[in-house]
Design brief:
Layout lengths: L1 E10 L2 E11 L4 E6 L5 H8 L6 E7 L2 E2 L5 H6 L2 E4 L11 H8 L11 H7 L1 H5 L10 H13 L5 E5 L7 H16 L3 E6 L2 H7 L2 E6 L2 E7 L7 H7 L2
Parallel strand pairs: 3-8, 3-9, 6-7, 7-8
Antiparallel strand pairs: 1-2, 1-4, 4-5, 9-10
Helix pairs in contact: 3-6, 6-7
The chain binds adenosine-5'-triphosphate (ATP) and magnesium ion.
Adenosine-5'-triphosphate binds next to strand 2 and helix 1.
């Protein structure tokens, strides 16, 4: 599904990601872990086509996409759920979902009913303005907007950040349901428990480099992860 080889991303003189390689198989869920500033967002944004200063190879569904524009990558079926939610503040829930559908590119349209089954709170608020939603509802809307493009792969950048425990559970359940439909997932997380409930494999990034990778259940015991997270 996704194969990244030797991805390097710079901000001017600063190298934020050094030679990252990873794979995500069809229908697989992989976690990209790391402390603040490790380079997780930079890495996934580069994979999704949002950084020009990048080197390395990104293959998605067999095609080399590292020079593609972000919009083309989205149409090809890779949906990024960004860390800062980036909703259009003055659009309603329904309008936001409609916009998400624009990257669908001929793939079968998800029914609004399916989306609202996953996120009942969004149905109750279908005509509400996005900026007036709570943080948790905005996170759900960001995921729902991505689902509207009928992606084959979803990249989620810290979907649990800043949310109350109960809301996190709703978001995790929704992501599990997305995964159960066969959508491959690359999950950026700092919370091991959440990562463990969604992903079977993990990579740990520390100052832009992969310092550990393996089964999700072994990550806590690794010295490298402990150091990266000061555990
Ligand atoms: N636009 C930018 N210009 C310059 N440096 C940047 C920029 N964005 C990020 N960086 C730097 O790149 C490094 C990696 O940042 P990044 O946002 O990718 O980390 P992260 O792992 O996503 O962190 P967090 O968990 O806090 O979201 C950091 O040192 C950061 O300061
Ligand atoms: Mg980040």
């Amino acid at each position: 599904m996704l194969e990244v080889n030797d991805l390097t991303v710079k901000y001017g003189a600063l190298t934020a990601v050094h030679g990252l390689s990873l794979t995500v198989g069809e229908g697989e869920a992989v976690a990209l872990l790391g402390a603040n500033g490790a380079g997780k967002t930079t890495a996934v944004e580069a994979i999704a086509g949002l950084h020009d200063q990048r080197d390395g190879e990104v293959r998605f569904q067999g095609r080399e996409i590292s020079r593609w524009r972000a919009s083309r990558i989205a149409r090809a079926g890779m949906a990024l759920v960004p860390q800062w939610r980036e909703l259009f503040g003055n659009f309603t829930v329904m309008e936001t979902l409609e916009i998400g559908g624009h990257a669908r590119n001929g793939r079968a349209a998800p029914d609004y009913r399916e989306i609202f089954e996953l996120f009942p709170r969004l149905e109750e608020r279908r005509d509400q303005i996005a900026s007036s939603l709570s943080g948790g509802e905005q996170q759900m809307l960001t995921i729902a907007r991505a689902l509207m493009s009928a992606p084959t792969m979803m990249i989620l950048d810290e979907p649990s950040a800043g949310l109350a425990v109960g809301v996190v559970q709703d978001v995790v359940r929704a992501i599990q349901a997305v995964r159960a439909r066969g959508v491959a997932i690359l999950l950026v997380e700092q919370n091991f428990e959440i990562a463990g409930s969604l992903a079977s494999r993990a990579l740990v990034l520390s100052t832009g480099r992969v310092v550990w990778q393996g089964d999700m259940e072994d990550v806590r015991d690794s010295e490298e992860a402990r150091q990266a997270f000061f555990l």
